[in-house]
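for the writeup, i need someone to sanity check this before i put it in the appendix. the sequnce is what the collaborator sent (i think, or maybe the updated version? ugh). structure was predicted straight from it, no edits. if anything looks off just tell me and ill rerun, i have time this weekend
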Amino acid sequence: MVVAASSAAALHRMSSQLVAAVERHSVRVRPAGAPIHAADGELLFSLLGELRLDSHEPLLRELPSVAPGTTPCPADVGAAVDLRAFVGAVGASAAANPLLCILAERLSSSAVPSELDDESAYQLVHHCLLLDLVTRALAADPELAAAVYARARGTVHATEGWWRPLGIFELAKLKTVEMTLERFVEHRRAGNLPANFGHIGLPFNILEAVMQEASPSPSPRPAWGPPGRRAVARRPRSGRRALCLLPKPALERTRTQLCSTVLR
């Protein structure tokens, strides 16, 4: 699939707008003279708390900080990362994906307003950065990945009646993700990850997600975790609104068009 120049340009334009929004908000919230492109360690640490990983020292020691290899204080988590470089790297990777280029062009030409306010852009970039940092740390260390997975799974399953808020597609998706991670951990420990690993589970997981999104009555968000720290009890961060920029009909049309492209 050939990527049109207009699609690549749209993606570059969106990346530039995102960086500009992050810079503007950094100037507003940081002390005078503080670097505006360094990641906000305290924000990253609070996002780790939402994942119940802010006290998991083996993971904290592997995240980039001003003192690598030690357990960082909240302000130091990820502070060595340049946000401009991160957004640029993500944009370069996305530009190599024809489907993402198509999506960027459609969003940029849509009549639906898609501009993020500066605070939302700032939080969204940090949310993506945290997921990237954690993923890289887990990819580099099979035992750390197994420990973090066990911790996350334990948090969910220790919550009484954790399955009740889930619809059938959400429950199926959760169980297949758990099964895939268990197998993945086993193969990594044994050093014999098959070349076709995930060739059934991944398409099935994507199908579950599409069917859940198409469901006319989505289930309420589950409240996992100890009392007082349940995600459902918090008002969602403004950055999360970035995931809901399109009204549902427009979102469904875009999803259908992209899925049709993939299937062709």
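The mean pLDDT is 75. The two ends are 11 Å apart (CA to CA).
thx in advance!!
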